[in-house]
Amino acid sequence: MKITVKNASGEVIKTLDGQVNKTLLKQLEAEWIEIPSACFTWICGACMCEIEEGEELIEKEAVTASGFPLADEEVMTCIAKIKPDADGEIVLKSMY
Question: What is the domain partition of the chain in residue ranges?
């Protein structure tokens, strides 16, 4: 399972091995990939990324907080996880 991360300009930042038991944001932070986040400042949505590939590999139940609308191709990396049986590649593009 691979995760490829692009910056807001669409340039590939890094590709890493994805882990099922961690949120996408925790995995990116562990690889020193800077994705804006503001979880402790009440500014929800800063870590949102566009899903360019692999939407079906992301745990949908954890994709959005109650009352926070997201398009199918968007993901809140702070709460989204990879599905346990996922195999393939997820390509994320930072929105900010």
Answer: 2-94
